[in-house]
Amino acid sequence: xxxxxxxxxxxxxxxxxxxxxxxxxxxxxxxxxxxxxxxxxxxxxxxxxxxxxxxxxxxxxxxxxxxxxxxxxxxxxxxxxxxxxxxxxxxxxxxxxxxxxxxxxxxxxxxxxxxxxxxxxxxxxxxxxxxxxxxxxxxxxxxxxxxxxxxxxxxxxxxxxxxxxxxxxxxxxxxxxxxxxxxxxxxxxxxxxxxxxxxxxxxxxxxxxxxxxxxxxxxxxxxxxxxxxxxxxxxxxxxxxxxxxxxxxxxxxxxxxxxxxxxxxxxxxxxxxxxxxxxxxxxxxxxxxxxxxxxxxxxxxxxxxxxxxxxxxxxxxxxxxxxx
Amino acid sequence: xxxxxxxxxxxxxxxxxxxxxxxxxxxxxxxxxxxxxxxxxxxxxxxxxxxxxxxxxxxxxxxxxxxxxxxxxxxxxxxxxxxxxxxxxxxxxxxxxxxxxxxxxxxxxxxxxxxxxxxxxxxxxxxxxxxxxxxxxxxxxxxxxxxxxxxxxxxxxx
Lengths: 324, 158
What we know:
By secondary structure, chain A is α/β, with parallel strands linked by helices.
């Protein structure tokens, strides 16, 4: 694993992480792996090429490839040492044969498992890693509405959808908080919704060590309110029987279990917390934090810590709408 | 400004396909065609009904639908990289096959200095890989690979 010079984390961040990861060896492993770069992982874009064909092309350029998840042959790790930026500059990448995507970022779509001919909403879609993953899972059928409010991020999303040949996508630009009200007015209800919410990004420290610098508790509080609104509004655009993922790339309980606790209270018996499997080691959602007790059903959510699978950190939870 | 999405009507669709057949031998499209702006043509293979999309764009700003397939030039069409990949199995006319060195040059965004017996838009191919469309004139093929899709030019020093 490659180590590099990274900024010092703020003392409050250290204190919070040490409180979250209680066992000493585990904690050491977390801080140790946080200093290293993540693995070079890619996802074969099965819309354009099969995993076997892609592996043959990449091996021809001398790269050693492994497939870490047995049931997901499209997920690959480049084991060879690469030059900085090399992964994004290969001809196979430029032609859209693969997407550079961190392993943990693939988990929300693995959990949601979109199927052919479904109507799918990706509420905060940029830069498009999960939208293109869903398009491939749906074999370019059904319809994906990929929404992004930021104009700058929207253009990156458009480039990625195009490069991956995602023919089943409609790209919209609206604040996710009001978008779903419009779908209700239009009578459009989704089979699946992904709320991969904007967050404080604590889980992305290995790829973006500058998160240590920009991290602050005010962001966590502000994000927590936004995340709850995004989820509750999007839930209204879900079909009865439809499934919805709430995910973040942060460890902060205020942005994860606490958000879930609030929307479970708000949505009452209309929502069911679902069990699901992931191809990595996970830990259950926590039921208390800083003197607050959460709804016990949050244990069905999954925390992904970097030291458990040599990935970045993530949080994934899954729900079903059971009543209108 | 948010573009207006208009699906091709059957007459426009027929004219578009006839031209694609004339240029490249293409006879069918795996989806519905829309034009965004004056010249960019998009292909959408989603199953959401057209009337719902039309109603949707009155309330929700739609930036794009499907993916960029081709650009119109006075009744001729230049296929995008994805256009050539999606329609790969149907393309039978005006194809230029490159060798490895030419492929590198092409993917760096350079024109190809080569004589062909073709004039106008040509599909560029290397083995099984479709590499977009060029424009052939007497001694060269002009390159339209967008900057974001080009290989790094190894001949340019930093």
